[in-house]
What we know:
By secondary structure, the chain is α/β, with parallel strands linked by helices. 45% of the residues lie in helices and 16% in strands. It has 2 domains: 9-169, Rossmann fold (3-Layer(aba) Sandwich), CATH 3.40.50.1970; 174-362, Dehydroquinate synthase-like, alpha domain (Up-down Bundle). It starts with 8 loop residues before the first strand and ends in a 7-residue tail after the last helix.
Amino acid sequence: MSDIQARFQILSGKNSLEELIFYLKNKDNRISGIFVLTDLNTRKHCYPRLFKKLHQNQILHDVISIQPGEASKSLETCDYLWNWLIKKNADRSSLLINLGGGMISDVGGFVSAVFKRGMRFVNIPTSLMGQVDASLGGKTGINFKGFKNQLGSFTPPEFVVIDPVFLSSLPQREYCSAFPELMKYALISRPAWIELLDSEFPESISFSMGNMPDLEKLMERSVNCKMDFVKGDLIDQNRRKALNAGHTIGHAMESYFANSKEMQLLHGEAVGIGLIVELYVSYKMYGFPGKLLSAVANSIISRTGKFDIPMDIDLFMEQLVEDKKNFEGKILFSLLKEPGVVIFDQEVDTALLSEGLKFYNSFPDAQLC
């Protein structure tokens, strides 16, 4: 068992909430208080299911909700939550259940990691992005001074509870925004499963559990892929860096558009742009197959849509220089030579990044053979 797997478990499937209830009722676990964090959307659409389970088993708890969206990943939100926990007499033996998407697991995990020098927490991701990526791996984080995930910790939860039934409330856009992360897994895995991913995740879907027979298999493979890269490298020193593919440009895009009144990007949409741009850089620097780059770009854009991004790389440099993966002031990327072959800690010339942005903006006219 890996170091991180020894510290928390992944409970998945239709009985996952029952397994969590069993843990909460076990007096040997010495849980002094149970608290639930949601955003306003998951409070309405997802909390009733959890409440029913807790109520049926006479498990007392308190619940608090915050605004949805990236703006809640802030110190102000954390201050609000810490004060609430103090008023509720929470202590280090208390448990915080984070019920929501990636923002909730990031904020709730960070709040828990810092409170009383560490209280226990459980992630129940309710978005596809959360279930296959954001809630896993033990990273917590909030934004600071306009920069993405500048404050955080490597703190694994007690459990991650993956119940696909929560996905039934997802808007189409939220559902499709997870596709770039799944494509990233396909690209960094060996053997890659890119063609299989295309068939499992159709371009247009009216979501219901009934018409997604392969969803649980897709999720299981993605979770296993992430945990395979995390094990033995909890704090991003070696092979886990492969998971950063697409995220250097992606986080810069996300932070840049966070201040835009015209358009806000979801995390997965920003990663989709980042993955296409960084694969173009990989094509130019390391010979990543051009035909495959075009196929990946087409697959991502057909699901997330196309966004008009500024062509001037200087607009993103302020975001890029503050990327948490940088070292000694150098902007570092995880690039691909081919599927399954990732090259870490690579510097990229700004002129080449500009080319990558142009390639994205010009697609599909800029397809490569």
